[in-house]
Sequence to fold (307 residues):
Amino acid sequence: MTCQTILFVILAFLSIVNANLEQVTDEELEKLIGNEKFVIALFRSETCSECDELEAQLSSIREDLVDSLNAWVVKAVASQLKTNFTATNNPAKPLVVYFRHGIPMLYDGPLNDEVMIDTFVQNQESGVTHLNDDSFEHLTQAASGATTGDWFVMFYRDDCDPCLKFLAKWEYIATQLKGRINLAKVNIMADGISTGSRFFVEQVPTYLFFRQGKVYQYSLDNYETQAFKDFALGWYKNAPSKSVPVPKTPFDELVDRSVFVLKENPLILPVAGGALLLILIVTLIKSLKGTKPEKTTKAKKNTKKAD
Ligand SMILES: *[C@@H]1O[C@H](CO)[C@@H](O)[C@H](O)[C@H]1NC(C)=O
Fold:
């Protein structure tokens, strides 16, 4: 063998090795997600030809991604984490998830080198705005229908598993509507309680599209990226519309939050009632036992107040 052939064999060997991505355990992956700016993870099963193809594709653009983003490109085989990023559980189907400062985006586009690289490079920040009771009206101008453009908002709750699993796809849909439609999310069991009540959101997830003072509900039974995209870009016209309710006053918000707490914790009323009764009884006993006249008057006053 000449020197050239040896070199050729070595190079060929290296390129085969390079066709595979570095494999990480779930624990390692969680560390990467938590510590690294950009992580691109392929979730795959052990043997599946679609996975092999996707892995070969990612391997071929790995160097570009390292150059342009300094990204980690890894694979996780038969990972428990995979179900975090998809609401449709198909164990065989490989997923590509792009983490930007820990925020996942499920890549749902064509398997094309250029499109993939572009999508990753052009979406280095989350494309979904987190709105809450304080910021919603200010940022969307939903009621006035003014200048901030159209908004497509997902209402969800922390205890809704399918909602949380859909957020990675919502991020991808945001990349597809970037520059045309603003995408947002509102957590109606945390800082968006009053906003949820303003739009009568009772079930989650609920998707509302706000445009020029009108609100349209996405109520199709289709959770594909394309369906959301089509809806926001024109299909909403076929959906029934309502005028956007006026923003809530701070007093309304307080009421909404109290009602929410009571609804979520049906035991509060009896417990609070019980506590109040106990306080009354204790006060009463104290006032009866009271030796010094001064204290008695005080206790009596308290009892009157509590009444
Ligand atoms: C996966 O989901 C679980 C349950 O919702 C959560 O505790 C965990 O932090 C998630 N892991 C990642 C890496 O997103």
